[in-house]
Amino acid sequence: MKLLAAACSFLLLLVVLIINVACVAESRPVANNSAVVEPPQRRHHDHGGHHHSDDNKKRRPTHKLLVFGDEAADNGNGASDPALGIRSRGWRYPFGSSDKVHGRKPTGRLSDGLVQSDYVAMIMGHRESPPAYNSDDWDDASGGMNFAVGGARALKAPGVPTLGKQVQQLRDLVRDGVVTDDDLKDYSVALVAYSGNDYGDAHDDMTLDALVTEVVDEVSSVVSDLLDLGVAKVLVDTLPPFGCSAWQAKGMADYSSCNYDADEASDKHNAALRERLGDEAEAVMLLDLDTVFADLVDPKEGSTLSAEFSERLRPCCEAFDDDGYCGQYNRYSICDRPDEYFYWDFYGPTQAGWRAVMRLLQGPIMAFLGISNLNHF
């Protein structure tokens, strides 16, 4: 009897297991055909192994970023042809050598790593700047797009698009339906990252005051065009103090101080820009690079973050002569620790430099855009 009872118990257990397996198998097609569907993923090149963290997967950015400007924001729109020399240097070593996100490889960014547009994007919850307009990294413009090109100007110059031309590229995408009204309304943010390249060029017999007026008129026009297209908020760079740039400090007892006489152009530009855009306070924010750069690199100034840099004015990557440039074969030297240098070359900050700048501006940007989640970088 005990043997019979055991056999019956075994058969009963076997039947239960068979029923459970059948139920599980039957439920699988239902799960696959449920109403919960993962959204399609945008295409992004890994550039050497970028990985999402679990926190980034959970935190979905709401703001879309549109980027216009020059080398402060370019993430790959500049030409890569080596025959173009200095204009294509961002695609060659040692550019990108500190950029772990992209496998320490050059990406067209004119720095040893990330640039301003990347950190603005991070403040909004993105991993990095939106894809470059000239790249194949995007399927649509729903998350934003970067139109900036190294060397760009407000006024016309051979071989580089003006800020107005970059806005026209966006306007063409709107016309073609690639960018929709839904992409722009409410949560779209434009960054106008202008570094003042026009002031390094000769413009006939134009006086500085006349040049400032023309440049600021054009920057203001670009901002107006963006707002007219439906962009909700616009961030506009003021100019850093020209006298505290590496190319001006070189002649000041070997990078020992700023050349304050060279600040005239940047000071006049910033004053005119504040006057022109002051009435757009609700929709436009001026990013005070003038004050922040001075706090970080001017020996007379100094913030907590400036102590992170053992070299504030000397560039990490320096050409041997006035005709050379960083990245030119056998005509430059490079420092051992770029993270201790504010400037990468004569033209812009290191990745560490841009990080420090944007950490000082992060709070005001968050307040302007109504962002409450602090993204550390």
Automatic annotation (TrEMBL):
The keyword Zinc does not apply. The keyword ATP-binding does not apply. GO terms for biological process: lipid metabolic process. Residues 35-61 are annotated as: Disordered. Keywords: Hydrolase, Lipid metabolism, Signal. Residues 1-27 form the signal peptide. InterPro entries: GDSL, SGNH_hydro_sf. It holds the Pfam family Lipase_GDSL. One of its GO terms (molecular function) is hydrolase activity, acting on ester bonds. Belongs to the 'GDSL' lipolytic enzyme family. This is GDSL esterase/lipase.
